Amino acid sequence: MNPALTLATARRILTQLRHDPRTVAMLILVPSLLMVLLRFVLNSPRLFNATAPALLGVFPFLAMFLVTSITTLRERTSATLERLMTLPIARLDLLFGYALAFGAIAVVQVAVATGVSLAWLDLDIRGSLWLLLLIAVLDALLGMALGLFVSAFARTEFQAIQFMPVFVLPQILLCGLFVARGSMGWLLNWLSNVMPLSYAVEALGEVTSSSTVDVTLIRDLLVVAGCTLLALVLGAATLRRRTP
């Protein structure tokens, strides 16, 4: 890997996003607006505090998956990636450049959503705010990495969106957001245990309910970070010199 090439790729993506204000607005504002909507739908501080921490990870995860998969697919189908692959640049340089660019957006996205939840929606956090931000950013990066990976298997933007029910919705349903994972049947519990979003939601629940950093929390962080890195590596493996 060449750090200079990785940074150059990140700058190119950020420059493109700067000229697409609607996409930037969606990435940064939509999770915050959804948190506001959730607060008024529940109309109860107690219910909001029980539900909101998990959604601070789920909303950015979903938004980053959609935008990243579609943006990367456009570059594949427009032959931009194909032209870049003719240059002396490694696949990991390209993928980690994407990760840096979308990661920077994810930091802003999560910071805004968390700030709105704390300042205006009375979200109660007993643990470290910085740890909460770290976990939420890891969730957004996980969505970004999966979006980069699945873009290799789509030929149109419609197909890219169709991957959401396969890679995203099962994780949301089985992560413990609606039903406690321990009360699920053995098959659903097993599926939940192999899905990274389950560990992200568990970590967010722990950091908002307790200030203790225990082994479980560290394990959850390592699982989410490891799955993000694995998805990026698999995404690099799908980059081809020619686009079919």
From TrEMBL:
The keyword Amino-acid biosynthesis does not apply. GO terms for cellular component: ATP-binding cassette (ABC) transporter complex. It comes from the Bacteria. Its main location: membrane. GO terms for molecular function: ABC-type transporter activity. It is found in: Cell membrane. Pfam families: ABC2_membrane (PF01061). One of its GO terms (biological process) is response to antibiotic. It is a multi-pass membrane protein. Residues 14-242 form the ABC transmembrane type-2 domain. InterPro entries: ABC-2_transporter_component, ABC2_TM, ABC2_TM_bact-type, ABC_2_transport. Keywords: Antibiotic resistance, Cell membrane, Membrane, Transmembrane, Transmembrane helix, Transport. The chain crosses the membrane at residues 21-42, 54-73, 94-121, 127-154, 166-188, 221-239. Belongs to the ABC-2 integral membrane protein family. This is Transport permease protein.
